[in-house]
Amino acid sequence: MDYAIGLDIGGTNIKALAVTPGGQVLAQAAVPTGDNGKRRWYLNVRHTKDALERAVKRKPTWIGLAAPGLAAADQASIAFMPGRLPGLELLVWQKFLKVAHPVPVLNDAHAALLGEVWRGAARGSQNAILLTLGTGVGGAALVDGRLLRGQIGRAGHLGHISLDPAGTPDIARTPGSLEDAMGDCTVSARSSGRFSSTKKLVAASKAGDTFARTVWLKSVQALAAGIASIINVLDPEVVVIGGGIAQAGESLFRPLKEYLNDFEWRPGGHKARVVPAKLGDRAGAFGAAWNAILSPTQP
Known about the structure:
The chain has 299 residues and is α/β, with parallel strands linked by helices. It has 9 helices and 12 strands. The chain has helices at residues 41-56, 93-97, 108-119, 178-182, 187-190, 198-206, 210-234, 250-263, 283-294, and strands at residues 4-9, 13-19, 25-32, 62-67, 70-71, 78-80, 105-107, 128-133, 137-143, 146-147, 238-242, 273-276. It has a 5-stranded mixed sheet with strand order 3-2-1-4-7. Strands 10-9-8-11-12 form a 5-stranded mixed sheet. A two-stranded antiparallel ribbon has the order 5-6. Helix 3 packs across helix 9 and helix 6 crosses helix 7. The longest helix is centred in the last third of the chain and has 25 residues, at 210-234.
């Protein structure tokens, strides 16, 4: 039986699964990445791959990998990811994992979108957007059935669109970005130091704290403006919202949809679906596996 191994490397955990082309999960694993600054973390990737092989009791037909950073044009490695996971940049995974066939590499957000398109909330879509709301705001785009990568793999960094040209530049030098308006990284600044996390902000808002509700709704309004702008550029069928902040549930999605009723251009009454992600932290592993199965360089 043919199957693929998808490996998703995060700063905290490695998520992995063995899955058939029909989407049946044969085995899965999640282990600490072990990034201790001594470049030993990538040994855990190989050990995880080997453990899945032992669980399935045969070698995979395909292996795909997802990681933070910009993937190289040939998909053999991550070309650019400074400051995290030392040794990741330019590591050729086919060589490191000692396999005969190429191991295609994707940016982790790109992989998560592919996973949601294959087996998740955007299943079967030809035009889809993913926004991951967490410490920052990540993203990816599928346009006419093709993952949008761009010239250097930078496409899809939707958190770095500008909502306010007079705003403070974010880590990508974008003034007044969507990431700074919604990401957990700025919630303390947005709430004048009252809240240290979006989870606490939302809890206070639900409990009736007027100040917290004002801050939260301003953030959701900014998200809606960003989504409406992205819809106008890429015309997706569906916008998938993932990441830890998406766990706010109706506290997020109800006001978001109300703001989109005001902001979204809907020719002929058509509107893009806005839905929560389904695959959770396995989306990247699903997408890495699917990318490997689809890769023309694979057997």
